[in-house]
Amino acid sequence: MKFPPPRRRSVVSLAIFAAACACALAWALGGSLAPRAAAQVFAPFRNFEAPQVHPLAITPDGTRLLALDTPEGRLSVFNLTPSGLTLAKEIAVGLEPVSVAARDNNEAWVVNWLSDSVSVVDLSNGNVTRTFDVGDEPTDVLFTKNGALAFVCVSGLSQVKVFTGSSDAPSQTLNVRGKQPRALARDASGDRVFVSVFESGNQTTIVPEAQVRAGGGAPPPSPTLAAGLPLPPSTGLIVKWNGAQWADERGDGRWSNFIPYTLADVDLVVIDAGGSQAAIAEEIRGVGTNIGNAVYDAATDRLLVLNLEARNQVRFEPNLRGRFISNRLSTIDFKTAAHGVTALDLNPHINFSQPAGTDAERAKSLALPADIARASDGTLYVAATGSNRVGVFSSSGAVRARVAVGQGPTGLALDEARGRLYILDRFENRLSVVDTRTRAEVARVPLGFNPEPQLLRDGRRFLYDASLSAHGDVSCATCHLDGHRDGLAWDLGDPRGALQSSGGFGSPALHPMKGPMTTQSLRGILATVGLQSTGRLHWRGDRADLAAFNPAFTALLGSPRQLTTGEMQAFTE
Fold first, then answer.
1. Which parts of the chain have pLDDT scores under 70?
2. DSSP string over 494-534
3. pTM of the model
4. From CA 354, how far away is CA 470, in angstroms rounded?
5. Could you give the 3-state DSSP secondary structure of residue 208?
6. Are 511 and 241 in contact (CB under 8 A)?
7. Is 376 exposed, middle or buried (0-12, 13-18, 19+ CB in 10 A)?
8. CA distances from 62 to 8, 412, 465 (A)
9. What is the distance, to the nearest Å, from the Cα of residue 332 to the centroid of all Cα atoms in its chain?
10. In this structure, are strands 409-415 and 500-501 parallel, antiparallel, or unpaired?
């Protein structure tokens, strides 16, 4: 058995600990240390923006709600009563917990993304009974067969590990042919476990620059080059597999002559858990680009999967303005051998023929779908992190309502017996309680202590807030998912743009037609704050600081405005 890993402590707990150590040291030295005033220095808060996957769960008997206080590294246990939620326990687990599942009424497993571990929690006594390593960046846990089998998704290793009984060692390790498997779901019997692959891709790749020239050059730019702009540099070209060939944005398939491969594009993996040994039974394609949480519909034998679908095969920022991603709910039909996949747009109200959008349109949009829950009558609930809303859908996917909740909803737990839907609002570190009959928020309940500094809470919204876009459905985080990346390349050149400088004496002018570039992770980047700076940003060093990205709010997101000076400073900090 391993002890739980150390976690970030609050300022108060650190102060108490420091004072206790000082007293103990003075006692050990026979009181030779005279008391003196001293400034206390604490380590700064380190934010990892961990991807909450299933941060909420209800025990099988319906008496407890389990909620993850991710920044504080705790499991908050609430008693469910007729009068509402009562916080009963706060249990220290590992660093950056992202998923929790109840094995039974008294035991829960918590997946710690940063600690690379699972904490097993005794809910009655309110303590961790054991902690064991599972591998790099685990994201989810799921139980089948009355808790006899535990499946843990280990994203960084592209594996699903199977645990039986009380053993800390997996009985099986299943390798997933995909990057960043993230969320787990199961059918009603527990004989099938579904694994979504977060960075599954969308069948796009790059033709290298030399091959583009050999193939006759890239398609002419549209819109045409601005007057006086020199000819653009020769670059690579993004192409997409159309089922038969690699084609550019015009549908020209000549590029197949230069690409001697196809891509796996595994979006969803089906594990057969019904036998003596679990085994990967199927790999399903055509679901989307970035695949998220899913829920099973036993009435129709369908899996309902949240996903984003990218349009990165389309070149140039003006052509992608405000419409580079679709927020979708895809259904996978398991009644037929072909397992047909049908995609539903979560925002059918958007009129893309009006590029500027409207306030009324933005007020209805659902961006960055994070979690999904299904009621027994087929009603579906979708948490939209970038919109601060929960979408309510019929079983066929028709929009029934949009419920305003707190900032950054990531997790859902449905309590049908009490007519309540619980939502974890990650950015506020609170729970929203929604009455499922009136479809309105009726309460907000704090999770517990939040150690995040105020500057982090104030600035985070500008990364995620989709209301700062033309149609209310995209944000910076749409590509920089969880502050990271989408795993794609984009050609965000602008034929109508101007030459730019990369800074410094004698630096060459940079053409606005820059060719394909992969999305950069924001993790580890220090923007210019005070005396700390990483220098110029972006692949070409064409951004002096984070504020230089402000034009992207109007150019790429299509927002009616850029951030104000105060908002940009908050975003930077």
1. 1-43, 502-506, 526-534
2. -TT---EE-SSTTPPEEPS----EEPPP-TT----BTTB--
3. 0.91
4. 9
5. coil
6. no
7. exposed
8. 31, 15, 34
9. 21
10. unpaired
In contact, 159 and 140? CB cutoff 8 Å: no
The pLDDT value given to residue 452? 96
Task: Quote the pLDDT of residue 261.
Answer: 94
Torsion angle (degrees, nearest 10) of CA 114, 118, 124, 125: -70
For 361-379, give the DSSP string.
HHTT---SEEEEEE-TTS-
Q: Find, among 410, 404, 399, 402, the residue nearest to 388 by Cα.
A: 404
Q: Is 401 exposed, middle or buried (0-12, 13-18, 19+ CB in 10 A)?
A: middle
Other beta carbons within 10 angstroms of residue 286's beta carbon come to: 17
Report the distance separating Cα 25 and Cα 167, nearest Å: 40
User: How many Cα atoms sit within 13 Å of 494 on the Cβ side?
Assistant: 15
Phi first, then psi, for residue 11 (nearest 5°) are -60, -40
Euclidean distance between CA atoms 270 and 109, whole angstroms: 22
* DSSP assignment of 541-563: S-BSSGGGGTTHHHHTS--SSPP
> Length of the chain, please?
573
Q: What's the pLDDT tens digit per position in 263-313?
A: 999 999 999 999 999 999 999 999 999 999 999 999 999 999 999 999 999
The contacts found for 530-538 with CB under 8 angstroms, 24 or more apart, are: 536/502, 536/503
Please, which residues have CB within 8 angstroms of residue 81's CB and are 6 or more apart in sequence?
none
Please name which of 38, 42, 19, 139 lies closest in space to residue 451, comparing C-alpha atoms.
Answer: 42
Number of Cβ atoms within 10 Å of the Cβ of 45: 14
- 397 Ramachandran zone, left/alpha/beta (phi>0; psi -120 to 50): left
The token duo for 15 is 């102060």
Residue with tokens 């349009």: 311
Q: In the block, which residue shows the tokens 């659902």? A: 366
The two three-digit tokens of residue 79, written as one number: 């008693």
- How many other CB atoms sit within 10 Å of the CB of residue 254? 14
What span, in angstroms and rounded, lies between the C-alpha atoms of 282 and 271?
7
CA distance 410 to 51: 9
Read off the tokens for 11: 């300022």
Contacts of 82 (CB under 8 A, 6+ apart): 418
Q: Which helix (H) or strand (E) holds 341?
A: strand 341-345
